[in-house]
From TrEMBL:
Protein name: MAM domain-containing protein
Keyword Signal belongs to the record: yes
All residue ranges annotated as the MAM domain in the record: 157-378, 378-546, 556-725, 735-934
Signal peptide: 1-19
UniProt KW keywords: Signal
């Protein structure tokens, strides 16, 4: 029971607990599992068991560290100055220094405990790698050996965490974070064990199940009672498990019931102590995978080994459902330090914490910046040079220069971005000097290394810090150009004028199908007080809206932090929608975690809200829109999800002034999860080609029948490229329709008859009498015989009784026909728009939902494939036929239908009803690529022949 023995030592020292007991008896069911064996028993603090040398050393180190912490704490409490200690960076105030060192001592104690436990634990590596994890005992002369953990290394070795049975940790170690209530261990594993242990199915290095990686599980099922052992001590594991089971434990204090509850938890993976980087710095490249509802974020931290001050240099909360993503960060640091990978799960009280999730790492590499190659290309802290950025030889008037701090009170930064507001002595940046001999409108250009093509679906986000303080500040631009091309550079980001004397973070999105260069262009303003500075340039995969919003202008990008960036709710007189989008903040656990929009409580099922973008001019290049969405329904109705719909349309403004319908380019219905999800869609014309005329983008929210839920959007951005739709299921298909607003181009074809057919029908109609049938139709005065021959949209005053919309259970939002004619059978016909063929996929599948109703002996719904051009001699291929008998139920049911269609050339589809006392409703017609079986089975038509 080694962990309980540790508890006795801690209790004897009195550092972590409020009361001391003489005996610690574990619960009867407490069992410590380690490497295939278990131990049970009771440990007495007065046990006379002989103490080993290792145990004595461990006790000595812990007690000594605790004594130092207690001494510092007492001196701080008494207002005394602690004994001066030589540190690389003297504190500004003695009291502040003492408090910081006291906190550092507490962190050091936690680290000592964890590492002492690792020395005593069994060997964790099953391969003879040469690091501290493989040592089974310390050398005999510990007094002459420097602590392995205190040795400075130049940089960690590259690590792919092994493969198969030879997993390894490469010197990385689990380290406790004293600000967390609980530290979670990282575990080395492989994809073959993912379903059993957790983590991704494949590693990044080998892309198979045998390759190794390191991960931590984020889910946690809270116990019914807090697992507090007598004396307020709990056991935790701090070793890195490489597949052999639980490792030796250590102890940490837990909060007493009367203390504030800290539910923050983290998993820290740390390097050994690294020496100062030098001005060039290091590039850390790695691959990470995040999946699951219980994950919060992953971040990279530089931790000072003397003061335990820390700086977060990289962070991501993007959840790509377990797909490996590349991370890169360039950094410099002038003192001994560690690099921490800290994974953070959701808070313990968050309901999402019960769900499985993980954060995984693979292929971690440390490179010197000058040797990094394609890793960290374009990244720069400007401490030791320009990192491959070069001043333009032609096309500008002067050069960018490096600086450490302004020589003027009236312009320029006091120090670089990383040390701004701190007593730091290191750090530099680049800037333009607007002093003589510069004149207004002089410009300086700095050109990046050539960046690789991003592709159409993988834009990168450029981030940097900028300082624009001074009465004469001009303009700062970020432009993109294709190397060797004669086309003028394109402006991606632009800001003009003075800001306050602060550094500001900026970002923009970069996308190109060809290798490109970025240009930082600064222009001198009205006078000499116009220095412009830039620092800490970095790049990362993924989309991002332009920031700050004042740099976005009419780009359409928006993060909704300050305003709506030109996106507007339409005027009520326009009649486009029923209620408005609103810019909001967090709604706690049941709503979006950040400030976004949601539906208002005074709207009704089927109500629509539009948000319209600024007007975009014609652009020959294809464009893509990216955003994040949140569609959460807290309670699901027994009839099914009923949150509503989120759609994106293109509103065309033809140059000839004609009116064109909206083109839907992206849509999703109902609940999608309790988290923010990424979306992407190409901007297209109705024919599927890139937009060739002025347009606006419309984000439409449609409220379903549900009353408790949220639909929100955030971080809208636009970039060049003919991207694909993401998620794939959100792709809008020509010809599909959910009949919420209109018939989407579907037309009634009942009136398209020959002269003889039209004359015969007119004669028949003249003999009929209008009859009222309120039991089957909600409406005033029933339905006229002529109206009964058509398919029409359901409305609040005319629709089948008790039939809700299928899409999200609203009262309206579908199409139907209802025949009441005892003298003859009627045949209402509904035809689609032309559906284009796809060269790569000759087979298509049409799917739809249908609902029969009525008292007639039989009603029939038939689906035909017809040629694009409508003529009297149309050849109709019958594909699907369903007959309903006596469907006069109190509440009609929606049924699913689908059938394969040959799509080797353009076609239309046609629904034809047949009834004399009843009808059918249709909803959610769409198309999929590929083959499919006919459903329901009773609708199969064999063989399919022309009729």
């Amino acid at each position: 029971m080694r962990p309980l023995l540790f508890a006795c030592i801690l209790m004897a020292s009195g550092a972590f607990v409020r009361s001391v007991t003489t005996t610690v008896a574990p619960p009867a069911n407490l069992k410590h599992m380690g490497h295939g064996h278990s131990q049970e028993g009771t440990v007495d603090c007065d046990s006379s068991e002989e103490e080993s040398d290792d145990e004595a050393l461990k006790r000595h180190e812990i007690v000594k560290a605790q004594a130092r912490a207690a001494a510092h704490a007492r001196m701080v409490a008494l207002g005394l100055k602690p004994k001066p200690t030589l540190t690389p960076r003297p504190a500004v105030e003695v009291e502040k220094q003492a408090q910081a060192r006291a906190a550092g001592e507490r962190q050091r104690i936690a680290v000592v405990e964890a590492r002492t436990a690792q020395r005593d634990g069994e060997s964790l590596s099953i391969t003879p790698v040469k690091d501290y994890l493989t040592r089974e005992k310390r050398q005999e002369d510990d007094d002459e050996e420097e602590d392995e953990f205190s040795k400075l290394i130049e940089r960690p070795e590259p690590c792919d965490f092994g493969t198969g049975e030879e997993l390894r940790a490469c010197g990385w170690v689990n380290t406790p974070n004293i600000t967390a209530a609980r530290s979670i261990p990282w575990v080395a594993s492989r994809g073959d064990d993912a379903l059993f242990r957790g983590g991704p199915r494949t590693d990044h290095t080998e892309n198979n199940g045998a390759g190794g990686y390191i991960y931590f599980e984020t889910s946690r099922e809270p116990p019914r009672q807090p697992p507090i052992l007598p004396g307020g001590v709990t056991t935790e594991s701090n070793n890195i498990d490489v597949g052999g089971g639980a490792a030796a434990g250590s102890v940490s204090g837990v909060a007493q019931p009367d203390e504030p509850v800290n539910d923050f938890e983290s998993a820290v993976l740390a390097t050994r102590n690294i020496s100062a980087t030098g001005p060039q710095g290091f590039c850390i490249s790695f691959f990470y995978a995040i999946e699951g509802l219980s994950v919060d974020r992953l971040r990279v931290i530089v931790m000072d080994v003397n003061t335990f001050e820390n700086i977060t240099v990289w962070e991501s909360d993007d959840n790509f459902d377990g797909k490996w993503q590349k991370g890169e960060v360039a950094y410099t640091y002038g003192w001994p330090h560690q690099i921490w990978f800290e994974g953070i799960p959701k808070r313990a009280k968050d309901p999402s914490r019960r769900f499985r999730g993980y954060v995984a790492l693979d292929d971690i590499v440390f490179d010197k910046m000058e040797e990094a190659g394609d890793n960290c290309l374009g990244h720069c802290t400007f401490e030791g040079g320009f990192c491959g950025w070069t001043n333009a030889d032609t096309g500008d008037d002067f050069n960018w220069d490096q600086g450490r701090g302004s020589q003027s009170f009236l312009t320029g930064p006091q120090r670089d971005y990383s040390s701004f507001g701190k007593d730091e002595k290191t750090g530099g940046y680049i800037y333009i000097d607007s002093q003589y001999p510069r004149r207004p409108q002089d410009k300086a250009q700095l050109i990046s290394p050539t960046l690789k093509a991003t592709g159409v679906n993988n834009p990168i986000c450029m981030r940097f810090a900028t300082h624009m303080f001074g009465n004469g500040v001009g303009t700062l631009r970020v432009l993109t150009r294709i190397e060797g091309s004669e086309e003028p550079p394109k402006t991606l980001w632009e800001m003009t004028g003075e800001a306050t004397n602060q550094w500001y973070l900026a970002q923009l999105q970069v996308a190109s199908t060809e290798p490109i260069q970025l240009v930082l262009e600064a222009t001198v303003g009205a006078n000499s007080l116009g220095n412009i500075a830039i620092d800490n340039i970095s790049f990362r995969q993924g989309t991002c809206p332009i920031s700050p919003q004042t740099a976005a202008r009419n780009s359409g990008d928006c993060n909704f932090e300050e305003d709506t960036c030109g996106w507007m709710n339409p005027h009520p007189a326009d009649g486009y929608d029923d209620f408005d989008w609103a810019r909001q903040y967090s709604y706690g656990l049941n709503g979006p975690p950040l400030d976004h929009t949601r539906k208002r409580a005074d709207a009704r099922g089927g109500s629509k809200a539009w948000l319209i973008s600024p007007k975009f001019s014609t652009d020959a290049a294809p464009r893509c829109m990216a955003f994040y969405y949140y569609m959460f329904e807290r309670t699901i109705d027994p009839s099914g999800p009923s949150l509503g719909s989120l759609r994106v349309h293109v509103l065309h403004h033809p140059l000839d002034g004609t009116k064109k319908p909206l083109t839907t380019i992206w849509r999703l219905n109902n609940h999608q999860g309790h988290r923010w999800l990424m979306a992407r869609s190409p901007i297209r014309m109705p024919d599927g080609l890139p937009v060739s005329e002025p347009y606006q983008v419309v984000i439409e929210g449609i409220w379903g029948h549900g009353r408790v839920g949220y639909v929100a959007v955030d971080d809208i951005s636009f970039f060049d490229g003919d991207c694909t739709t993401f998620p794939e299921k959100a792709a809008a298909v020509p010809g599909e329709c959910s009949f919420e607003r209109d018939m989407c181009g579907w037309q009634n074809a009942t009136g398209i008859l020959s002269k003889e057919q039209a004359a015969a029908q007119a004669l028949q109609l003249s003999k009929q009498i209008v009859q009222i049938r309120p039991s089957n139709l909600i409406g005033r005065g029933g339905i006229s015989p002529r109206a009964s021959l058509t398919w029409r949209l359901a409305s609040t005053v005319s629709r089948p009784a008790n039939l809700q919309d299928h899409t999200y259970r609203a009262p309206t939002g579908y199409i139907f026909f209802d025949i009441f004619n005892q003298n003859s059978v009627q045949n209402p016909i509904l035809r689609s728009t032309v559906v284009q063929s796809i060269d790569s996929e000759p087979d298509r599948c049409v799917s739809f939902w249908f609902a029969p109703f009525g008292r007639g002996e039989s009603s029939t719904l038939t689906l035909f494939r017809i040629e694009p051009e409508i003529t009297e001699e149309d050849t109709r291929m019958i594909l699907w036929k369903f007959t309903s008998r006596r469907s006069d139920t109190i509440r009609p049911d929606w049924r699913y239908g689908q059938v394969k269609i040959l799509a080797d050339k353009p076609f239309r589809i046609q629904f034809e009803g047949e009834a004399n006392d009843g009808g059918f409703a249709l909803d959610d017609i769409t198309f999929y690529n590929g083959d499919c079986e006919t459903r329901p089975a009773t609708a199969v038509v064999l063989p399919a022949e022309p009729v």
